[in-house]
Amino acid sequence: MFIFKKLCSRILFPVPLSLELIWVGLFLMWIRPHRKIGKWVLTSGVMIFTLLSFHPISKILLDPLESQYPPLLIRSKVEAQALAKTEQIKWIVVLSGGARNAPSFPLASQLSRSSLLRLVEGVTLYKQIPHVKLLLSGSEVEARLMHQFVLTMGVPEEEVVVKKGSRDTKEQAIVAAEIVGEEALVLVTEASHMPRSMALFHKQGLFPLAAPVGHSILPDEKTELWAFFPNSGSLQIAERAFYEYLGLAWGALRGQL
Question: pTM of this prediction?
Answer without folding.
Answer: 0.87
